[in-house]
Amino acid sequence: MIISHTYDGTCGGIAPASLRRPFVDVARVIAAIRGRTAHLFAALQQQRTMRRIARFSDHRLHDIGFERDWDESVNRMQGRSTAARLGH
């Protein structure tokens, strides 16, 4: 059994699909990809920087606001402001 409905009048309430909609969606996807790429790039840059800083002596690490932990990992010094670490 097939149920079908027919309308004699025109459907004036339905708007045509926007042609800009696909472009807006693509622009949102591109913006999201750019944001994630920027985040990934910043994380990779921080890892590279931390590897370079890890080679510094303990005294030099202390001068720039870092300290070496008991397991030889390098961490930011806690409890001191940046101005205090720089001697201002």
Descriptive notes:
This protein is 50% helix and 7% strand. Strands 1-2 form a two-stranded antiparallel ribbon. It is mostly helical and 88 residues long. The radius of gyration is 29 Å and the shape is rod-shaped. It folds into two domains: 21-53; 57-88, no CATH class.
What can be said about this structure in brief?
By secondary structure, the protein is mainly alpha-helical. Helices cover 50% and strands 7% of the residues.
- Please give the radius of gyration in angstroms: 29 Å
Mean pLDDT across all amino acids: 80
* Number of DSSP helical runs: 3
Class inferred from helices and paired strands: mainly alpha
Distance between the termini: 87 Å
Strand content: 5-15%
Number of domains: 2
Shape: rod-shaped
Q: Looking across the biggest beta sheet, what order are the strands in?
A: 1-2
Helix content: 40-55%
Low-confidence sequence ranges:
none
Please outline the major beta sheet: 2 strands, antiparallel
What string gives the helices and strands in order?
HHEEH
Quick one: how many beta strands? Answer: 2
